[in-house]
């Protein structure tokens, strides 16, 4: 349900961005949004979640995260939840990438803010959807 909601919101977000004349910021915004929706869900706090399974053979990297954060705890906080996943992923992948010789990804600095906003927005939608479900008694 969460992923469908998040992906359904993306065209609306891009339309608003277009109407606000965001121009070159739309691509990094959409890229961040898709990455956030598909790979950085708050439900990574569940070791056997759909979000973890989307990581394929790399899903094992999220098991410690799931052990550190109880479901719908800090990982579902609107600010601290996404920040915890971004930092965790950086701490896990940076040493691995360096050890394997992967280059640090380069992108224009002007992409940074729209990319981060794009990564954060689907997290917020997911958390809001969870909170509405709990309020309505479906949690």
How does the SSE layout of this entry go?
Layout: H1 2-19, H2 26-39, H3 50-53, H4 63-68, H5 80-100, H6 112-135
Strand content: under 5%
Largest sheet: none
| Percent range of helical residues | 55-70%
The whole-angstrom Rg is 16 Å
- Total strand segments: 0
End-to-end gap? 13 Å
Tertiary shape: flat
Order of helices and strands: HHHHHH
Mean pLDDT: 91
Q: How many structural domains are formed by the residues?
A: 1
Total number of helices = 6
Stretches where pLDDT is under 50 for at least 5 consecutive residues are none
Judged by helices, strands and strand pairing, the structural class is mainly alpha
Which structural traits does this protein have?
139 residues; single chain; mainly alpha; 6 helices
């Amino acid at each position: 349900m969460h992923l469908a909601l998040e992906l359904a919101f993306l065209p609306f977000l891009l339309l608003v961005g277009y109407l606000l004349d965001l121009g070159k910021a739309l691509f990094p915004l959409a890229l961040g949004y898709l990455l956030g929706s598909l790979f950085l869900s708050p439900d990574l706090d569940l070791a056997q979640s759909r979000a973890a399974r989307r990581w394929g053979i790399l899903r094992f990297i999220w098991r410690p995260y799931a052990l550190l954060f109880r479901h719908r705890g800090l990982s579902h906080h609107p600010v601290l939840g996404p920040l915890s996943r971004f930092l965790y992923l950086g701490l896990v992948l940076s040493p691995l990438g360096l050890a394997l010789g992967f280059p640090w990804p380069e992108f224009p600095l002007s992409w940074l803010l729209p990319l981060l906003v794009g990564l954060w927005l689907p997290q917020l939608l997911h958390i809001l959807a969870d909170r509405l479900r709990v309020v309505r008694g479906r949690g």
